[in-house]
Design goal:
By secondary structure, the chain is an alpha/beta fold. The chain contains 11 helices and 11 strands. Bound molecules: S-adenosylmethionine.
């Protein structure tokens, strides 16, 4: 069966790398695993051995069928479909991969919350009510050698929603993994977004020769442990992402210039806010970590 370049089909061919992915996922028989793009089942066959249950989604009908036949196992379900066009909230809760919505207390009001918030080990930060309770229990890990052409979309889909996994271990392009794990001084919208939801780390760099066909890029196993300590109230969260977007509007400009233009504020007013959070007027967006942006939304 010829690999389809349009579907990012570069199949892993190294057993040791599979072991390293399994180890990074801290996978045990108690775990539910979601795999995106099982392909020929090279990683899947280990996942069904080491975990309790595997749900895999494969866009390529012939590969989905191949996995079903080749791996036939009581703890494997292969769905044919596009990961980006699937109702995960429903699919995961039907299979017990995530729990039911519970009552949450937000800003003193007890209310039923759906959408972005209903998936979180709820919590808030300064200036917001601390009593946002967990409303959905995540009971699965996302482990996959993903198609690189939709890396950003997959990260957004599984981090920003109500069905966050506990851990993500993903094979991604090396440069993307490095970008996600950057520290203040070199941060960008992607790294801040991921670091807001969890703690990313590179498990190992995987040379291109470990795939068939050999891709044009090297890869890395990226592990993200979902941590919602920074997680804000829904409104504050929207503000946080809006502010970051404006802060990075023109990477060559200072943060003061970007924010005063984006928020239509006097430069002096933005400077004062930056001073309050420990930066001067020459600071650039890439120097601020997640905590700094969170502090800033209290003032802007
Ligand atoms: N897991 C296999 C391995 O490690 O050898 C295959 C990995 S390959 C990089 C990516 C897989 O994702 C392919 O099997 C491809 O058909 C599948 N895929 C591509 N786009 C997809 C999508 N939108 N939804 C689900 N699967 C997709």
């Amino acid at each position: 069966m010829k690999a389809k370049k349009s579907l990012g089909q570069n199949f892993l061919i190294d057993d040791r790398v599979v072991d390293s992915i399994i180890e990074a996922g801290e996978i045990s028989q108690d775990d539910n695993v979601l795999e995106i793009g099982p392909g020929r089942g090279f990683l899947t066959k280990e996942l069904i051995q080491k975990s309790g249950r595997v749900l895999a989604i494969e866009k390529d009908e012939s590969l989905a069928e191949l996995c079903r036949k080749k791996l036939a196992s009581g703890n494997l379900e292969v769905i044919t479909g596009d990961v980006l066009e699937t109702n995960w909230e429903e699919i995961l809760s039907q299979r017990g991969f995530s729990g039911i919505t519970r009552l949450s207390k937000v800003r003193g009001k007890t209310e039923q919350r759906k959408g972005v918030y209903s998936g979180i080990n709820g919590m808030s930060s300064r200036g917001f009510d601390k009593e946002i309770c967990q409303t959905r229990n995540s009971r699965y890990k996302l482990i996959a050698n993903i198609p690189y052409y939709i890396t950003g979309k997959i990260l957004r889909l599984f981090l920003e929603n109500s069905f966050q996994p506990q851990i993500l271990v993903l094979m991604v392009q090396k440069e993307v993994a490095e970008r996600i794990c950057q520290k203040p001084g070199k941060l960008g919208i992607l790294s801040l977004s991921v670091q807001y939801f969890g703690e990313p780390g590179i498990v190992e760099i995987v040379p291109r020769e470990k795939f068939d066909p050999i891709p044009d890029v090297d890869s890395a196993v990226l592990k993200i442990v979902v941590k919602n300590e920074n997680r804000l109230d829904l409104e504050a969260e929207k503000k946080f992402f809006r502010l970051i977007k404006k802060g990075f509007a023109n990477p060559r400009k200072t943060l003061v210039n970007n924010l005063s233009a984006g928020l239509v504020l006097e430069k002096e007013a933005v400077e004062k806010v930056l001073e309050k959070i420990g930066f001067d007027g020459n600071a650039r967006a890439q120097e601020l970590g997640v905590e700094d942006w969170i502090k800033m939304i209290e003032y802007l």
